[in-house]
Amino acid sequence: MVITTLGLELPSDPRWVDIAKMNLGDILIDHAFCEQKAASSCISLIVQYPEREKLVEVLTPVVAEEWGHFQRVLKELRKRNIPLGKPRKDEYVNQLQQILRKPGDRNEQLMEKLLLNALIEARSAERFKLLSESLTDENLKKFYRELMISEAGHYRNFIELAEEYVPKDRVRKRWKELLEAEAEIMKTLEVRADRFH
């Protein structure tokens, strides 16, 4: 049995980290946009569900953390004289969004959005772990180790918030379905040098 980060059903293709190391500039650019989108996603949840006090309380500091990560990745890009450029299409997230259930009451819709965010954080944490173990740049290794710990915390935030608003057994059942669907998506995605996911 393969042990994966945060219960993911399928580990990343082992080629990804080798390709990432050889194309670090492209990976850093895509990573910067991922952090930007993570902050935006949390802001969007706060705007859509302002009456959920626990959600607002938990996600407000996550917004600040994700934006801080974005700034730190920008700093790494500047050190290497790499411009940020334009965002790339995120095939991974686009495919995840296709498996979300659209109908349902407000709580069910919230659960879907929270679990989507949890999945993205879990996969990001796994990739940060791979980079922290494989890079030769000691500063970047330390940076990605810190981010792995942070994203794992965010993953827990999203799961716990889902369980705050929807019965735990329903959340766990849906989480298992999404993990299985995410594994199928990972099998179909091309391993690319310019994508973080």
TrEMBL record:
The lineage of its organism: Bacteria, Pseudomonadati, Bacteroidota, Cytophagia, Cytophagales. It comes from the Bacteria. It holds the Pfam family MiaE. This is tRNA-(Ms[2]io[6]A)-hydroxylase. InterPro entries: Ferritin-like (IPR012347), Ferritin-like_SF (IPR009078), tRNA-Hydrxlase_MiaE (IPR010386).
